[in-house]
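Retro notes (design track)

What went well: tokenization of the new backbones is finally stable.
What didn't: we kept losing track of which sequence belonged to which structure.
Fix going forward: every design gets posted as structure first, then sequence, in one message. First example under the new rule, 278 residues:
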């Protein structure tokens, strides 16, 4: 089931879910539309602000407690720890997800890493189910239209109900990368390795391959950033068919290069219309 393009165009209250890898332009488009009074729902922000807030703050507090000066101040309630996540600054969410590997380089042990991954997945699913009530909230606050700026890992959710809810309430638009875009995104990820969400079966399989290739006896010997650089191309290409499957069944596909030319709300609607009528 997907939202019919004619019904979408005729509706006085439009809602769109943008889907694709981080860096393809989801937030860029969302910011353009937000300036035109579209309600900007950031799934990453919802995850960090609502569902992982207490876990993030507990992680920050644990880190601070390892510093004697801060420990004393925390124990006597002279200072407090707060998670100041924003739509444009999601660093605390990334820091919570963390990286696998050598603890001397801020790496996490596998059980703790998988625990945090599970919490993130649960938060991502919950944030997706929140979309309908936030559409109502947007209308109540005077926003005619709604843009769901989804996470880069939306395609990793293996729960059909999520996409049925999104397709019922929004037009799902998959932002597809070209081979040239893929090279740029992979190069950017390898230049600045960031914590990511991985399906458990995928990460365990990749870790086994990495350990064998690098001849490592223990994961604690693994350099966190080196593993992310190594695994990211595999993650990227594993996600492409998952995105496309969702788009084929629940939405529409548009090229990232098309959206890169978008400068206005009218441009965005024209691009959606063209992609849906192909």
């Amino acid at each position: 089931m997907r939202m019919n393009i004619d019904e979408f165009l005729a509706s006085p209250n439009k809602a769109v879910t943008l889907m694709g890898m981080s860096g393809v332009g989801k937030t860029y488009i969302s910011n353009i539309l937000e300036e035109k009074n579209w309600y900007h729902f950031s799934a990453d922000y919802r995850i960090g602000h609502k569902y992982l807030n207490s876990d993030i703050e507990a992680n920050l507090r644990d880190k601070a407690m390892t510093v004697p000066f801060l420990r004393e101040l925390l124990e006597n309630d002279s200072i407090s720890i707060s998670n100041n996540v924003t739509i444009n600054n999601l660093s605390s969410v990334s820091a919570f997800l963390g990286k696998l590997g050598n603890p001397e380089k801020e790496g996490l042990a596998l059980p703790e890493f998988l625990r945090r991954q599970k919490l993130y997945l649960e938060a991502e699913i919950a944030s997706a189910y929140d979309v309908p009530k936030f559409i109502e909230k947007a209308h109540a606050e005077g926003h005619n239209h709604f843009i769901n700026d989804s996470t880069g890992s939306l395609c990793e959710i293996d729960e059909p109900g999520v996409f049925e809810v999104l397709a019922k309430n929004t037009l799902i638009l998959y932002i597809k990368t070209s081979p040239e875009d893929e090279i740029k995104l992979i190069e950017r990820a390898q230049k600045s390795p960031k914590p990511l969400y991985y399906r458990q079966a995928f990460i365990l399989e990749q870790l086994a391959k990495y350990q064998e290739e690098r001849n490592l006896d223990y994961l604690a010997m693994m350099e966190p950033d080196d593993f992310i650089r190594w695994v990211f191309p595999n993650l990227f290409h594993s996600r492409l068919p998952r995105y496309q499957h969702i788009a084929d069944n629940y939405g529409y596909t548009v090229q990232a290069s098309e959206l890169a030319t978008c400068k206005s709300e009218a441009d965005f609607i024209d691009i959606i219309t063209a992609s849906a009528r192909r």
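Added context from the reviewer: The two ends are 17 Å apart (CA to CA).
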